[in-house]
Protein 1
Amino acid sequence: MRTSILIVLLSVVSLVLFAQAKPHISFTSTTYDYGDVAVKSNGDCRFSFKNTGTTPLVLNEVITSCGCTAVDWPKKPILSGDTASIVVKYDTRRAGNFNKSVIVKSNADNTPVTLTIKGNVLPKK
């Protein structure tokens, strides 16, 4: 009887541990502040992240909040412990304050993650 209880207990623990074996996406920062930038200046920024989970991380979709923002993101799986980055390109041709979001959807246990870019494009002098 003790052996049966031990086997059942070990089986349950194994199932719980296996069910928790997922990737986890950890960003260095989820906000990028451009500050004041000139019109038509470089609007690129980079969000670095690491897969701190135990299985490969796959980014399924990266969605911008408007057409003035474009993204470049890894299409291949990121292995456990590896790092990668998402490049966000904001169109700085229009003057004024901006606050935009980028939603990252993945197979991670903490999906989705929202990234934010903000700043002020100065008017042309």
Note: The mean pLDDT is 90.
Protein 2
Amino acid sequence: MKKIKIIDKKVANYWNERGESYSKSWRSLAKKRLSKLETDLVEEVICSKKEDVKKNRKNKLKTLDIGIGTGRITEAILRHQVIHYATDISKTMVEYCREKFKNNPKIREIIVHDVLTPPPRKWGKFDVITAFRVLSYSPKWQEELINLYQALKPGGSLIFTFPNKYSSAMISKLKRRPLGGREVSARELEFTLRKIGFSEWNIIGFSRLLDSFYDLCDSEISAFILFTIERILSFVFGKTLFVRLFYVTCKK
């Protein structure tokens, strides 16, 4: 395969240094429950595609995980009958996941790749693409979305996250984002998705409280209180207002 040029070396170097230690940021009980909300969303989309697969007389969905990291989202995808590909800008993350999933026959390829570059043509098109905590690092995030749109089959789904411009977590004094990045409003996201050509989309959020609260809540009681507050905030403000991250599911 032709070597992929890494455009954003700052991001690549940051994740190379973090490596598998990134898993530690998901160890608290509250973070594990947040992770389950995310993976449940992915599995819900995959399950919705299974009828399409049956109609087309195929046995497996074709899936792609952009920014595989330590494999958290990929693990959820591999619970289903899929042919799976994955990428990451970090060589360290790619090597870690190649070893982690080396005996899984559902994995076709995991490569070092910059999302600003379209996925390899030989991979073809995908039924489902995931891109969690990836797109916001680049000022050219719209181009990244276009690349992923073009990598989808007709009717295929993209699931991605993006920081909310109007979240309390975006207040400058509370930011802890060493790589900087972009934040957008729900309206900006909808405008971009419509312009690119997506036929439908849904935008939701799971949390409004700061990430540090999730790191600290590592008991049943503290996690219960945290998620109770989140449910109250969701009831008051709806599914997107003031959320920290937008979770976007869109269909080609």
Note: The domain at 9-251 is CATH 3.40.50.150 (Rossmann fold).
Protein 3
Amino acid sequence: MAISEDEIYSIMFTSLKHPVRRKILRMLATKPMTFMEIVENLGVSTSHLTYHLESLGELVSKLDNGQYKLSTFGLATVSAMNGVEEAPQIEPKRRTKLTVKWQAVLGALLIAVVLFAGLFAFQYNTLNQVSASQKALAAQNKQLVSCGTGPDKVYNFLEYMTAIDARNYTVTLDSDVINYRSDFNVAEETIKYTLTTVVTPQTSMDVNLRFRNNHFSRYDLTIGESSPILIPNQPNDLLQTANLTLTHYKAYSGDAYITPMINLLDTVTNISSNTYIQGNMALQITNSAGTVMFYWMWYQDGIYFQSKGLMMTFQSNLLTVMTDGYWLFTVGSTSLAVSQDQAVSIAKNYVKTMSYPIQGQTYTGFNVVSGDPLSTQMVPHTRGNSVALVPYWYVELKLTSIYPGGYNEVGIGIYADTGQVSDANLLVSNAET
């Protein structure tokens, strides 16, 4: 969609007005840079940089390798900015009200002339690049590019990451929502597409994609009544398929941490449920009723940090779910001040004192069935608005009574480094509903 002149002027003036955005434009005019390179050079937080990059809008574009560069529009803006900054300065003389007035008028005219020149250069270069862009489109479609901004990029993701033959489908954008996640300090984009076969009888399936700070975060495929149409000659061996998918994802994202994941997968000889460890990288494979899950995660001091991990789920050799939080989360602590037994004791005592709203009424006096808990798991969790993971016990207990809504269990989360109860939620057991 073409940008109006009013929008162009608005973006130009907004960018030139803020010193941080002017500095970003100067930096990118020299060479393309990654998000973290810009953060390090500017000395600002990632949230501030995300805000400024979003404010720059069409002035900045993101390359396939994750680097940011100036668009033609951005180059024209930098030219305009340089023109204003390089304008000769006049030695101050006796200033009168009339002189000040005319200097302000002349300054405004100079800025307007430079901006018009930059706009003309932008429009001229854009027209010249149309032909070149069309010629480059075929080559671009063969590359792994980040998805989330149009059907062509969804085609690339599906074909290179899932082996779905997207040429046999019409892709419809259903929704595209961007929110700011204050808990992780990231901009989160959630996109939903419907894929409908181009031949009759028509069948469809849904694809959900999530990006955080423009980095892939989640893919979820919901299949209809018929099986998807796949690109011919796909591997029949699931280990080969998983290895190929992970290799493609490394090329797609450019993230170095995927290499040890590939190396660890190379040591696996069958897809039976098992756990493999190399250094700080762990791989858990779960095979249940034809659904196979590969889960790579950070492993340290005997603790599996699941959130700092990458997961792929296959059904009948087809990738149906993929998540990647390895790049986002960090390890904040591995301290275990609270043992598993101590966590169970803390949870049981907490339940006795808790109050819980159910259907508009607050309930107290909860009691749990004596004996062992239903389950106790170590699932490292963040604390506050942070991406740093700390050890965290999650204890599920059976209640002695059934409450409105069928609630008959309770889940208690406890930070294992402090013993502090983080959250408590009533649960419904499937066995009794």
Note: The mean pLDDT is 82.
Protein 4
Amino acid sequence: MESIQENKDGFFAKVKATYQAKAENIATNRDKLRELLHKVSSKITEVSETPAVKESKTQVEVVFRMLKAYYNKEYNGISSRTLGLLVLALLYFVLPVDFIPDFIPVVGYIDDITVILAVFKSLSSDIEKFLEWERTKL
């Protein structure tokens, strides 16, 4: 019987295979990246009280701030791999129809949050560097 972690890893691999090319396209186009950031900002506001999102709102916001600082040329500590994964996570978050469509009550955002948390975990050292940069910036 597969463990929960193996299921999450397999799910994340499927998401990467399906959406990575689109994420890379967005990551290399400033206009598309700006548009993605705008969509994420709107969606965070729209769904912030949804239980699945509420529990992971901090991680979503950190990923959003990291990309926004990169976009605004304030933070340049992002590798192309990190950039691609951050865009992948936020792209999946804003897509209304993904592996579990967002309009399905309760479970609609669980897959979105799973992807964000997987990216957050895989980029933990990059995220820590960003958070340290943020702390010193203030």
Note: The radius of gyration is 14 Å.
